[in-house]
Amino acid sequence: QRHQSDAESSGARIVHSCGFDSVPSDLGNLFVQTAMQETYGTAATRVRCRLGKASGGASGGTVASLLGVLEEASNSPELRRQLRNKYLLYPQGEPPGPEVKDQYTPRYDSKFSQWTCPFVMATINERVVRRSNAVMGFPWGREFDYDEAQLCDNRAQAVAFTAGLGTVAAISGTRLGRSLMKPILPKPGTGPDLQTREAGFFNLHIHAEHPQDSSKDLRALVHGDRDPGYGATSKMLGEAAASLVFDEPQTKGGVWTPASALGFSLLDRLEEHAGVSFTLDESV
User: Fold this and answer.
1) Beta partners for 109?
2) pLDDT tens digit at each of 284 positions of the chain
3) DSSP secondary structure string, 196-231?
4) pTM beyond cutoff 0.90
5) What's the burial of 233, exposed, middle or buried (CB within 10 Å: 0-12/13-18/19+)?
6) Of the candidates 14, 6, 25, which has an alpha carbon nearest to the alpha carbon of residue 220?
């Protein structure tokens, strides 16, 4: 909001969230929505993104960023209200879409026939995907609903993961809790070693629901061949920059998302150079 008008007038294209948050989610939704439109001539009214198997490590910088957000939010009721707003990144003046809530509890997902728990980055990715829909002129409709969660092997695991996340959030949400956690958390400037980065990977399963016929649902798999945060993200950032420099501009000046500004130009680059693939799951 602060820089939108300056970016528009200057022609600067500012594209945020160009790493694991939120390129796989944003381009994955674009990919499966495009397949739905090409196959059935309609948009998916609801898309579910589920983190499947993944491996990687956390860095001190990411931990510090999360703690910083929690500290600011603990001191600001207005910021807490904004962070709960699913349509926080909608353009100014744009009315919100359907009322939806973040997932805080274990849930059984009938589409995947698996239990799920909250996904820690959903609060970011969901809002980015919604902004893409809005700034692109609502190609997926004003009632479009998108949500994310993490797949679990069973109900017990979903309960355990949810309890663990809740406990960490509760402790880190207080000044005393943060001070007690800092000595045992990774320090800024540290992160996963080379072996962890190269052995890492991620799988995102993105299920698009046909608005009238569930037998026409589509599902995409977004696979990355490195640690999500510190192997895949670095390559996504590089290819996003290359796309901005070398590919035909899809937008004018403004603050954009990966899907709205770079779209399939970035998707093709990721598949060719960055070890990130987008495929339809024919078994669905």
Assistant:
1) 114
2) 899 999 999 999 999 999 999 999 999 999 999 999 999 999 999 999 999 999 998 888 888 888 888 888 888 889 888 888 999 999 989 999 998 888 999 999 999 999 999 998 998 999 999 999 999 999 999 999 999 999 999 999 999 999 998 898 888 878 888 888 888 888 888 889 999 999 999 999 999 999 999 999 999 999 999 999 889 999 999 999 999 999 999 999 999 999 999 999 999 999 999 999 999 998 77
3) HHHH-EEEEEEEEEPSS-GGG-EEEEEEESS-IIII
4) yes
5) buried
6) 25
Residues 6+ apart with CB under 8 A from 225: 201, 231, 232, 275, 276
Torsion angles phi and psi, residue 209, rounded to 5: -95, 125
Rounded Cα distance between 64 and 4, Å, is 27
- For the record, the structure tokens of 54 come out as 């993944």
